[in-house]
């Protein structure tokens, strides 16, 4: 999806990255294996997951000022399904377009 979004004519770019929760570090190597998505590790000092009330497999969509504006859970939505893929892509484009 990142490649497709990079080709869109949008007012701002969209960057997809992962943030792993505190205490789940043991899976980082497996998650990153064979992938190019940037992967960040939350810390006890930052507590991003807590401050954004993240549930496992949430996609948190940020606006141009890095404020959360939407949540799309990948356990509830399967990106291998064309309609779910298109829905998430539309949400990302909408956030980048200010909609």
Pick out its properties.
99 residues, alpha+beta, two-stranded parallel sheet, two-stranded antiparallel ribbon, 4 helices, globular
Mean pLDDT, to the nearest integer, reads 92
Count of DSSP H/I helices:
4
What oligomeric state is this? single chain
Task: Count every beta strand, where a strand is a DSSP E run of 2 or more residues.
Answer: 4
Rg, rounded, reads: 14 Å
With strands numbered from the N-terminus, the spatial order across the biggest sheet is: 1-2
Strand-and-helix sequence, N→C? HEHEHEEH
Estimate what percentage of residues fall within beta strands: 15-25%
* Global outline: globular
Total separate domains = 1
Uncertain stretches: none
Helix content: 25-40%
What is the CA–CA distance across the termini? 19 Å
Q: What is the makeup of the main sheet?
A: 2 strands, parallel
Structural class: alpha+beta
Secondary structure elements and pairings:
Blueprint (H helix, E strand, L loop, with lengths): L1 H5 L11 E3 L7 H5 L6 E3 L6 H4 L6 E5 L5 E6 L8 H15 L3
Parallel strand pairs: 1-2
Antiparallel strand pairs: 3-4
Structure description:
The chain is of the alpha+beta class and 99 residues long. 29% of the residues lie in helices and 17% in strands. The protein is globular. It has one domain. It has helices at 2-6, 28-32, 48-51, 82-96, and strands spanning 18-20, 39-41, 58-62, 68-73.
Précis, in short:
Helices cover 29% and strands 17% of the residues. It has four helices and four strands, in the order H-E-H-E-H-E-E-H.
């Amino acid at each position: 999806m990142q490649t497709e979004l990079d080709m869109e004519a949008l007012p701002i770019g969209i960057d997809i990255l992962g943030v792993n929760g505190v205490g789940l570090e043991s899976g980082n190597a497996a998650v990153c294996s064979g992938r190019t998505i940037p992967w960040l590790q939350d810390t006890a000092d930052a507590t991003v997951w807590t401050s954004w009330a993240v549930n496992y497999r949430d996609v948190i969509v940020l606006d141009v000022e890095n404020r959360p504006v939407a949540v799309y859970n990948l356990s509830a939505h399967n990106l291998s399904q064309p309609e779910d893929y298109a829905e998430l892509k539309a949400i990302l484009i909408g956030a980048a377009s200010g909609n």
